[in-house]
């Protein structure tokens, strides 16, 4: 359905000059339209945040929205009833009414600008609001790209410096004029809060955005300075708020047992939502840096990578490598056989030869296990203090990085004001408890999705957990059976053949769980590029950055294949592995897996899977939730 | 408190603009009357718990806007309603004449065919009556509806209208018993029997 409706929008994105979507679209609507609009929000609130603990938030949003739309207060009881879960049957009617409105009938995506402006009007962007926004746009059959584009436009018109030189004088004048009006409209909310409070409220990484906005308030003299890093510092000192953001965050002194904790920028851009990626270990060579596994990640234009305890992660990486590289080759295959067949049965007996080398891995693993928990707690404190600004954060991590996230969420859940900060979390191969009870508190913290990517045949995880009989269920090995709309389990068994693949196959994994990568940005890029040249620029820059690095990476890949070849998983015949139990799916998975590996080993072949579509359909077979995982986050489903 | 509530019923109030739908509801829920009540925007919503024959029922009442411009919104409320109150103004014949339209709309959008309907002739306190009580009664009987004349201003018949409606709904088990609260055997022709004999006229005045 989305696909067929996509065309007109694609076409519509090249905005005719005559069109003026600048007034508050929401306020232009006729009363029934406004009513339907507010009702849609109410229904969305009810379906996304139905819990009694969220009722005050629902009321707050509804009240703000009614005010924003200039609707009479008389509608509040009905709206609150909608938000309370009643009247959801009317969704379709409301959508139809709204889309028939003259302001929207030709260009439904106009509403997204209004949605974003509403969400930001108080100078902070709540993660829950962003999830709601996505839901409302989805109800209105507007592609999610439009939402990002709308955010982009807002950011752009706050950053007036970013004018395109390539345009003709007249066009640029017109554009400027349009911008100015749009900006005024968008700044209404910000301005009412007052410059000082704005920076105080948003602080952190949002500083550049607000700085540009505040420039309009405090006069253009300071505008140039405000754009620069120094300017931000000035702003910060002016308004007494930390404006340096995550990259500026340095551990002043050793916090607890943590020795290293730093945010490295992954991408250059600025966006209204950010992504923080957390690496699980470091290995020598190609994956020697924290940023290396995330080279293809492009979930948002502003991304950071958490650098933590490199010393210990490097040790762990070396241990993993030595374990991997032939030392226990035979035994590992033996172990794999057991694990694939029996899952992580507690009675699993590990081959004696493997146990003799256990110390190689056990020590660094234990150290990192402990440290990741500490780092997670520290990360929680940083996010809670809004060093990143008041905007949604998505956390993605694999292996011990996922454990960092786990402890971060656990820590955040203890705090009262933990809501509305985290949008989505993606935990891949997480070495943490997998029982629903310990994941339950996360629903309070996370507004969007909690994605658990697991692999049933991850022998390393089951091996390191062999002694801890308490933790019978490990999240990285099996789905977390938490009954909540947020919880999404993605079976990565067909993509990941062992724990080390979380690093090597990150690109494929990210696609499988529905996180945006550079490639899928390019695919949808047609829309984005036209909408904002800035986007295209930053993408281009990002790609250029990548380009020179690629050849060398490929070389290393070649070397890798040589390394792995003598004992890779491929030789394990799939027939031998599937005697009946959950047989067919597993067999086909393995076969597909080895195919994928073959393809992967071919140098220069970046994409093991031919299409996303086949990928997603496969996952929908293996996991119930896989399809929904792919639906909202990934562009592949459209 | 919630435990002894038998069921929650969705009640809908429809009718032409200005016939006094919101006033009826306001009288029923808050026992007040405002002659200057503003036109409803979209829909209004009120909850009230009432006790009928010892059974407590929570009423979720959706009071729709009568104005033409909000007419597009109305279809969304019909779904899942167990009872509907159709209101006309006894001093305005045109509101009575439009009843047929409302019934058609009800048929079109209502998801259950055994929905209980109640016809209310409002504003009987006024002098300039245009629609006779018998006319209303005849119309109601023709369309198997309950009937009552009422006045939101003087409080006449308002309570009775809602009570009658709820009583009727509760007597029609298939209507309100959801699958989750199935109480024993469901007699399939039970509801059929009730459909025909919709003659529970509430004689006021």
Automatic annotation (TrEMBL), chain A:
Name the residues that span the membrane.
185-218, 224-246, 338-361
InterPro entries with a match to the protein in the record: AB_hydrolase_fold, DUF726
Regions of compositional bias (Polar residues) in chain numbering: 593-603
> Where, if anywhere, are coiled coils annotated?
147-179
Keyword annotations for this protein, in alphabetical order, are:
Coiled coil, Membrane, Transmembrane, Transmembrane helix
Q: Tell me if Transmembrane is a UniProt keyword of this record.
A: yes
One Pfam family per UniProt: DUF726
Record membrane topology = Multi-pass membrane protein
Q: Which family does it belong to?
A: Belongs to the TMCO4 family.
This one is known as Transmembrane and coiled-coil domain-containing protein 4
**Organism listed in the record:** Gekko japonicus
TrEMBL record, chain B:
Q: Name one Pfam family in it.
A: Ras
Q: Indicate whether Protein transport appears among the record's keywords.
A: yes
Keywords of this entry: GTP-binding, Lipid droplet, Nucleotide-binding, Protein transport, Transport
Subcellular localization is given as: Golgi apparatus, cis-Golgi network membrane; Lipid droplet
| Record InterPro entries | P-loop_NTPase (IPR027417), Rab (IPR050227), Sigma_54_int_dom_ATP-bd_1 (IPR025662), Small_GTP-bd (IPR005225), Small_GTPase (IPR001806)
Q: Which gene encodes it?
A: RAB18
> Coiled-coil regions in this chain?
none
Q: Has UniProt tagged this entry with the keyword GTP-binding?
A: yes
Transmembrane region(s): none
What is this protein's name? Ras-related protein Rab-18
């Amino acid at each position: 359905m989305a696909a067929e409706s996509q065309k007109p929008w694609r076409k519509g994105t090249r905005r005719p000059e005559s069109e003026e979507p600048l007034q508050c679209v929401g306020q232009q609507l006729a009363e029934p339209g406004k009513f339907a609009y507010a009702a849609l929000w109410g229904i969305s609130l009810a379906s996304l945040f139905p819990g009694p603990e969220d009722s005050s938030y629902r009321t707050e949003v509804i009240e703000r929205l009614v005010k924003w739309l200039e609707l009479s207060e008389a509608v509040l009881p009905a709206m609150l009833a909608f938000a309370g879960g009643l009247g959801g049957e009317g969704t379709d009617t409301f959508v139809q009414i709204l889309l028939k409105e003259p302001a929207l009938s030709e260009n439904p995506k106009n509403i997204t600008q209004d949605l974003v402006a509403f969400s930001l009007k108080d100078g902070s962007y709540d993660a829950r609001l962003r999830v709601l926004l996505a839901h409302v746009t989805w109800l209105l059959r507007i592609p999610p790209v439009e939402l990002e584009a709308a955010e982009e436009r807002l950011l752009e018109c706050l950053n007036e410096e970013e004018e395109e030189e390539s345009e003709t004088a007249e066009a640029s004048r017109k554009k400027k004029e349009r911008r100015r009006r749009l900006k005024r409209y968008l700044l209404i909310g910000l301005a009412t809060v007052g410059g000082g409070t704005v920076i105080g409220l948003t602080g952190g990484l949002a500083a550049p955005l607000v700085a540009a906005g505040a420039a309009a308030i405090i006069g253009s003299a300071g505008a140039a300075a405000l754009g620069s890093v120094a300017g931000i510092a000035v702003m910060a000192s002016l308004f007494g708020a930390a404006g340096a953001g995550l990259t500026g965050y340095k551990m002043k002194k050793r916090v607890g047992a943590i020795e290293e904790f730093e945010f490295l920028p992954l991408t250059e851009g600025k966006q209204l939502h950010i992504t923080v990626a957390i690496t699980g270990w470091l290995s020598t060579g190609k994956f020697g840096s924290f940023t290396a596994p995330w080279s293809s990640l492009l979930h948002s234009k502003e991304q950071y990578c958490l650098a933590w305890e490199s010393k210990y992660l490097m040790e762990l990486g070396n241990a993993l490598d030595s374990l991997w590289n032939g030392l226990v080759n035979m035994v590992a295959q033996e172990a794999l056989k057991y694990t694939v067949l029996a899952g992580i049965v507690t009675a699993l007996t590990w081959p004696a030869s493997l146990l003799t080398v256990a110390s190689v891995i056990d020590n660094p693993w234990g150290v990192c296990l402990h440290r990741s928990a500490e780092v997670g707690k520290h990360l929680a404190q940083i996010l809670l203090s809004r060093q990143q600004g008041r905007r949604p954060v998505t956390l993605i991590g694999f292996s011990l990085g996922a454990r960092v996230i786990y402890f971060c969420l656990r820590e955040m859940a203890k705090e009262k004001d933990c809501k509305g900060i985290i949008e989505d979390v993606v935990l891949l191969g997480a070495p943490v408890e997998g029982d629903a009870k310990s994941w339950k508190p996360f629903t309070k913290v996370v507004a969007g999705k909690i994605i658990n990517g697991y692999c049933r045949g991850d022998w390393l995880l089951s091996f390191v957990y062999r002694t801890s009989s308490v933790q019978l269920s490990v999240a990285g090995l099996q789905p977390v059976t938490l009954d909540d709309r947020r919880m999404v389990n993605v079976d990565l068994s067909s993509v990941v053949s062992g724990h080390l693949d979380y690093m090597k196959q990150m690109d494929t994994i990210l696609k499988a769980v529905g996180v945006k990568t550079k490639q899928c940005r390019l695919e949808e890029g047609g829309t984005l590029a036209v909408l904002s040249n800035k986007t295209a620029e930053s993408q281009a820059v990002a790609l250029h950055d990548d380009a020179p690095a690629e050849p060398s990476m490929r070389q290393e890949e070649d070397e890798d294949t040589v390394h792995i070849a003598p004992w890779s998983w491929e030789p394990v015949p799939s027939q031998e592995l599937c005697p009946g139990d959950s047989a067919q799916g597993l067999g086909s998975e393995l076969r597909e897996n080895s195919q994928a590996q073959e393809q992967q080993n071919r140098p220069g072949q970046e994409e093991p899977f031919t299409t996303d579509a086949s990928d997603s359909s496969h996952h929908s077979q293996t996991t119930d939730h896989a399809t929904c995982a792919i639906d909202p986050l990934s562009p592949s489903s459209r | 408190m919630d435990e002894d509530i038998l069921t929650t019923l969705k009640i809908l109030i429809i009718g032409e603009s200005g016939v006094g739908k919101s006033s009826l509801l306001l009288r029923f829920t808050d026992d007040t009357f405002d002659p200057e009540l503003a036109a409803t925007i979209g829909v209004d919503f009120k909850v009230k718990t009432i006790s009928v024959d010892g059974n407590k029922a929570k009423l979720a009442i959706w009071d729709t806007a009568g104005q033409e411009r909000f007419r597009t919104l109305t279809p969304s409320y019909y779904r899942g309603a167990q009872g509907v109150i159709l209101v006309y103004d006894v001093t305005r014949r045109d509101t009575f004449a439009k009843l047929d339209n409302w019934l058609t709309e009800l048929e079109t959008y209502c998801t259950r065919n055994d929905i209980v309907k109640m016809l209310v002739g409002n504003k009987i306190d006024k002098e300039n009556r245009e629609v006779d009580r018998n006319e209303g009664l005849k119309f109601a009987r023709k369309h198997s509806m309950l009937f009552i004349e009422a006045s939101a201003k003087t409080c006449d018949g308002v309570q009775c209208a809602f009570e009658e409606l709820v009583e009727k709904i509760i007597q029609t088990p298939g209507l309100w018993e959801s699958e989750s609260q199935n109480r024993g055997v469901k007699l399939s022709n039970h509801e059929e029997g009730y459909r025909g004999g919709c003659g529970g006229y509430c004689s006021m005045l």
